[in-house]
Amino acid sequence: MKNILPSTSKMNRVEHTLDPIYNKDSKTLILGSMPSITSRAKMKYYGHPTNRFWPIMEQLYNCQIENWQKFILDHHLALWDVIESCDIDSSSDASIKNVKVNDIEKILRETEIQNIFVLGKTAFNLYKKYIYPKTKIEAICLSSPSSANASKKLATLVDEYKIIKEKT
Questions:
Q1: Terminal CA-to-CA distance of the chain, rounded, Å?
Q2: CA 157, CA 38: separation in Å to the nearest integer?
Q3: Is the pTM of this model over 0.90?
C-alpha cells in the first residue's frame, strides 16, 4: 500500500503586475508566460538572479545593460507576457491552469511589430491556443531562459536567440 502524503501544492490565483514595455517603434515582440514571484516583487521582467534572459541579451548585443527598459526600447523590442492571470504553484510554468491571456492585439495596434518570439513551451502553447487565432501572426518558440531549463547552456541559448537580433 502506498503512503500518500498530503499535497504540498499551493495553487494561487496570480495577476500580472508588470506593464508591457514597448513604444511605437517596436518591431519585435518577446513574450514569456507569467513573471516569477521574484520578478513580480522586483517589478522587473526576468528579474530572478538565475534567469539568463538579460545575460543572453548582453551577449547578443555586446553591451552591459544598465537600464533594462531603455535597452528594450532602444533596440526596437517589446516585452510582455502571454498570461494576464492564472492559477499557479509558486513560479512553475508546469502548474499553470485557468489562464486569462493579455490583450496582445493592443501592442500590435500601437506598434510596427513584425516578429513575435515566445520564450518556453508553455508560453508558446498558450500563444497558439488563445492568441494566434485572433492575430494570425505566427510566433517563433525559443527555449526558456529560466534556470529550470538547465540542460541548455548559456552559449547555446545565445546562439538560439540570435534570430531576435537578425529579425529586428
A1: 58
A2: 22
A3: no
Beta-carbon contacts of residue 131 (< 8 Å; ≥ 6 apart): 82, 101, 104
Where in 4-89 does DSSP place strands (E)? Answer: 11-15, 28-32, 77-81, 83-89
Distance, CA of 76 to CA of 124 (rounded, Å): 22
- What are the cell numbers at 61? 548585443
Within 10 angstroms of residue 128's Cβ, the number of other Cβ atoms is: 15
pLDDT digits (tens, 9 = 90+) for 10-57: 778 777 789 999 999 999 999 998 887 788 789 999 999 999 999 999
CA–CA gap between residue 11 and residue 27 (Å, rounded):
36
d(CA 166, CA 119) in angstroms, rounded, equals 17
Question: Residue ranges per domain, the chain?
Answer: 28-167
Catalogue the long-range contacts made by 58-65 (C-beta closer than 8 Å, 24 or more residues apart): 59/154, 59/158, 60/158, 60/161, 60/162, 60/164, 60/165, 61/165
Nearest residue to 18 (alpha-carbon basis) of 41, 48, 52, 49: 41
Written out in words, the top-level CATH class of the domain with range 28-167 is alpha beta
Enumerate helices (H) and strands (E) in the chain, giving the number of each: 7, 7
